[in-house]
Specification:
Mean pLDDT: 89
Shape: globular
Helix content: 25-40%
Strand content: 25-35%
Number of helices: 11
Largest sheet: 12 strands, antiparallel
Structural class: alpha+beta
Radius of gyration: 28 Å
């Protein structure tokens, strides 16, 4: 039982609650009844406030064994109110917590600090291990996961190999490392691996920070089989310390790639958005534009003059409207197409696109445009047009190859182009005359 102060701004009241963390990694509270008096009226007032804004309370409490809990992110899911005989009116908050921290003393000192993430959705066989400048890493998860199971039963941990000279600096760097590895492994599993709990163990205390998370969903198109995570895990760790390419917005692209999609239209948009963000974030200005800005500005002025001359034959209202529209669109003439930027970035990064038919890539991009601009693909699709699933696999394959190059991965993976099969990156270049 934790006892302490339940507050909102300057209003506060004594309160107690049983607190535990459930299997999904969520904080669970069972509050004791709070007498409804003038001092506690702010609880009822906040619950019955007609505003749609979520009100966050603070709760700071200590248990009998010395464990401490604190949060500034408690919110109501219900408010019980009873009036038992001779007890007055009692309030019983039903609360959830967006973020809370538990601290408790260890039975024995922990001389080498460790930082551990509890993961949802990570399926693996055995443990993954790596050594690095920050210490020893290990990642694990069950080899069987029920799609309905939301348990936080996987973990990713780093422990210092020797006492660090600066514990705070080691903690910050280790957190960045674990987050990097988590993102790369999310790409590998094609599912955003959620982290409801992070535990920092050092000296005589353990600090457990808990976040509220949405349900975990398994990826439907994993890039690696759960029995074959060793190589991508090694690449994830290595790319944190020695990235082969300095990539902007790598994590943003991975989040789009691993985002849950229930329909092929969504899967196509997600994969193309991941690829497009990666390309637009990393092309050089000379690759994004056809001509230097100053040079194109001269051409733009000439074109604008010609357009105004042609529009002079129209009515004033039509000419003015068209002039405004065309003036804005002229700038687009100097921007390279997405597929051309893809080619230029692939050449600079040395991303192998062997086996990717340019015509199929163009058709997939056009399919994405149809989905985005009108909400469907098949409305006027011809019998000879590729199925939407084919477009999904092409775009995902290209995105996978860009991401592999970004982190320096080489080895086996799962490709879905032409059907689910094992593939090798980088792909073998066929010699002249070779057909298979």
């Amino acid at each position: 039982m934790f006892s302490g102060i339940f507050s909102l701004g300057t209003d506060a009241v004594e309160a107690s609650a049983i607190i535990h963390i459930d299997s999904s990694g969520e904080l669970v509270f069972k509050f004791s009844s709070i007498p409804y008096k003038a001092q506690s009226d702010f609880i009822s007032a906040a619950w019955h406030d007609p505003s749609s804004d979520v009100v966050h309370f603070s709760f700071k409490a200590v248990a009998e064994d010395g464990a401490r809990f604190e949060t500034d992110h408690l919110f109501f899911s219900g408010l019980g109110m009873t009036s038992p005989e001779d007890a007055g009116t009692l309030l019983t908050p039903e609360a959830r917590c967006a973020k809370g921290t538990l601290r408790y003393a260890l039975k024995e000192p922990f001389p080498l600090p460790a930082l551990r993430m509890r993961l949802k959705g990570f399926r693996n066989f055995g443990s993954l291990h790596a050594e690095c400048a920050l210490g020893r890493l290990e990642m694990n998860g069950p080899h069987e996961i029920d799609d309905e199971d939301d348990a936080a039963d996987g973990w990713l941990v780093v422990q210092a190999a020797e006492p660090p000279p600066d514990d705070a600096l080691w903690h910050d760097e280790s957190e960045k490392l674990l987050e990097h590895v988590r993102r790369i492994m999310s790409f590998a599993t094609a599912s955003l691996l959620r982290v409801p709990i992070i535990e920092y163990i050092a000296g005589s205390e353990s600090e457990v920070t808990v976040w509220f998370q949405t349900r975990q969903r398994s990826g439907v198109m994993p890039v690696f089989h759960f029995l074959a995570h060793d190589a991508i895990f090694a690449a994830a760790v290595g790319s944190y310390f020695s990235p082969p390419i300095v990539v902007k917005h790598l994590f943003f692209a991975i989040e789009w790639f691993a985002m849950e999609g229930t329909y092929n239209e969504i899967r196509l948009v997600n994969a193309m958005t991941a690829l497009e963000n990666l390309i637009d974030s990393n092309v050089e200005p000379s690759e994004a534009l056809i001509l230097p800005r100053a040079q194109f500005e001269k051409i733009r002025r000439v074109l604008l003059s010609v357009i105004r001359t042609c529009l002079g034959k129209w009515t004033a209202a039509l000419a003015n409207d068209a002039s405004l529209e065309l003036k804005e669109k002229l700038a687009d003439l100097n921007r390279r197409s997405l597929l051309r930027k893809l080619e230029l970035l692939a050449a600079r990064w040395k991303v192998p696109l062997d086996g990717i038919d340019p015509a199929s890539l163009k058709a997939a991009k056009q399919a994405r445009d149809k989905v985005v601009h009108r909400g469907q693909y098949y409305e006027d699709a011809r019998e000879t047009d590729a199925d939407l699933w084919t477009h999904v696999t092409i775009i995902r394959e290209v995105a996978v190859r860009f991401l592999f190059t970004a982190i320096g991965y080489e080895g086996r993976y799962i490709s879905h182009v032409g059907g689910y099969h094992d593939a090798v990156f980088p792909p073998a270049v066929k010699s002249a005359g070779e057909t298979h």
